[in-house]
């Protein structure tokens, strides 16, 4: 995958909570959780995307780039899944 597309994918991953809303049922009292978690995840995604953009320019090791990219994506996915207000 092209290094210029990876920051955009990281940024889109930060919107995972919004993509999950129509698919997974949401529990009651969800508005405050969504108001706090969605902007926080989007902000984290922006920070990760900018950081990866500069890291990909400076690091020449392909393995290191892939590890950093995978780590950033996994952090965003895990945080999205942990903060999502499931209907239990």
Briefly summarize what is shown:
By secondary structure, the protein is mainly α. Helix content is 72%, strand content 0%.
Give structural notes.
This protein is mainly α and 88 residues long. The protein is 72% helix and 0% strand. The protein contains four helices and no strands. Helix 1 (6-13) runs antiparallel to helix 3 (31-58). It is elongated. The model has no long low-confidence stretch (mean pLDDT 87).
Tally of strands: 0
Distance between the termini: 38 Å
> Could you describe the largest sheet, including whether it forms a barrel?
none
- Low-confidence sequence ranges: none
Coarse morphology: elongated
Give the amount of beta strand, in percent. under 5%
Mean pLDDT over the residues: 87
The run of helices and strands is HHHH
**Helix content range of the residues, please?**
over 70%
Q: Please count the helical segments.
A: 4
Radius of gyration: 15 Å
Helix/strand structural class: mainly alpha
Per-chain topology:
Elements: H1 6-13, H2 16-20, H3 31-58, H4 62-83
Provide key terms for this protein.
88 residues, mainly alpha, 4 helices, 0% strand, elongated
